[in-house]
Amino acid sequence: MIRRLSEFGVGLLFGLGLIVSGMTNPAKVIGFLNLSGNWDPSLAFVMGGAILVGVFAFAFARHRAKDFFGDAIQWPSSTAIDPRLVGGALLFGVGWGLAGFCPGPALVSMAAGVPKALAFVAAMLIGMFVFEKIERRR
């Protein structure tokens, strides 16, 4: 029970942080990505803060074998940068730039009743489904 409450609390804090930082506003995100026009640098501070927290959190976690609930911490086994990784990153970036959403903010916006976010999440889920079907055939 405490694990689920903790997960809920962390998710709620993350969602509130997305709202407060403006990450759920596609116009703000697109303004950040518009380097040649009316650029809005404010999200750079949000990303910088997230990176700073992440650096310390991962440095702390690297020295632990178990998480706070006693489960083993599993690190990725591959560090290779291959064409699939680059292609996926490019596809993610293009989708983010066109829609102004990435998955976390899209879910928060969808829960707030934003129709564009619902369309984005539906397209994202369809893409995940198609990817899984293709992967199973490989």
Q: What does it look like?
A:
The chain has 138 residues and is mostly helical. The mean pLDDT is 90. It has one domain. Helix 2 crosses helix 4. The protein has helices at 2-21, 26-33, 42-62, 83-99, 103-111, 115-137.
Number of helices: 6
The CA-CA distance between the termini, in Å, is 39 Å
Indicate the mean pLDDT: 90
Could you describe the largest sheet, including whether it forms a barrel? none
Structural class: mainly alpha
- Poorly predicted runs: none
Q: Strand-and-helix sequence, N→C?
A: HHHHHH
Tell me the number of structural domains.
1
Task: Give the SSE layout.
Elements lengths: L1 H20 L4 H8 L8 H21 L20 H17 L3 H9 L3 H23 L1
Helix pairs in contact: 2-4, 5-6
Considering the chains and any ligands shown, give keywords for the structure.
single chain; 138 residues; mainly alpha; 6 helices; globular
Short note summarizing the structure:
The protein has 138 residues and is an all-alpha fold. Helix content is 71%, strand content 0%.
